[in-house]
Design brief:
Length: 174
C-alpha cells in the first residue's frame, strides 16, 4: 500500500501535556491518493471518521469508526462495482521508542507531535477489505475460451471442446 497525496495531520501535543485527556475527532479523510496495490481499489469520496484520541500514561490511543465507499472490479467478470466499507480503528501512539517497548508490537512511535490520519485510515481500510469482490453472488464470470462476459448471455463456444494440454487427464475421473 502506497500513501500518496496529502496527509491529514492531527496535532496531539496538547494531549501529551495532560494525563487522561481526550480529544474528539470527526474528520473526512481523503484516500483518493492512496494505492491499495495489488487490489484495483479507489476511493472517489472521503472516508468519514468519528471517534476520540485519549492520553493514558503517555500513550495516545485512537479509537474510531470509519465508513466510506470505494470502487473496484468484480473478480469473476471484471465489471466495475461500488462497495461500502465500515471498520473500527484502534491504534496506539507514543513519543519515543522506550515507551513503545512497554506497549504491544503495533504501537506507532511518532516522529513529531502529529498523527497522520490518512496513513492510519488507509492501513485499516486495506485490512478491512474483503478478499473477493463480486458484482453479484450469481456472477457467471468470463468464458475461459473466448472471454465473453457470461452474465450477458451464452458465448457460443462448445462445451465438449477439450484443452489438448489436459489430454492425459481426460479419463481420470470417469
Amino acid at each position: 500500500m502506497d500513501i500518496g497525496g496529502t496527509a491529514m495531520l492531527i496535532s496531539v501535543s496538547e494531549l501529551f501535556k495532560l494525563e487522561n485527556s481526550e480529544k474528539k475527532i470527526s474528520e473526512s479523510v481523503d484516500l483518493s491518493g492512496v494505492s491499495f496495490s495489488p487490489l484495483p481499489v479507489s476511493f472517489r469520496t472521503p472516508v468519514s471518521v468519528e471517534g476520540k484520541l485519549k492520553n493514558a500514561g503517555g500513550v495516545i490511543t485512537l479509537e474510531a469508526e470509519a465508513k466510506g465507499e470505494y470502487e473496484t472490479v468484480c473478480d469473476r467478470c471484471g465489471c466495475a462495482i461500488k462497495e461500502s466499507i465500515r471498520f473500527d480503528i484502534r491504534e496506539n501512539y507514543v513519543r519515543n521508542a522506550l515507551k513503545a517497548e512497554e506497549c504491544d508490537e503495533d504501537t506507532v512511535v511518532l516522529k513529531g507531535q502529529e498523527i497522520d490520519l490518512t496513513k492510519t485510515v488507509g492501513e485499516f481500510a486495506f485490512s478491512a477489505m474483503p478478499t473477493k469482490h463480486l458484482c453479484c453472488e450469481s456472477c457467471k464470470g468470463l468464458c475461459l475460451k473466448c472471454g465473453k462476459n457470461l452474465n450477458e448471455g451464452a458465448c457460443g463456444c462448445k462445451d465438449d471442446e477439450w484443452d489438448p494440454r489436459f489430454e492425459a487427464l481426460r479419463g481420470l475421473f470417469d
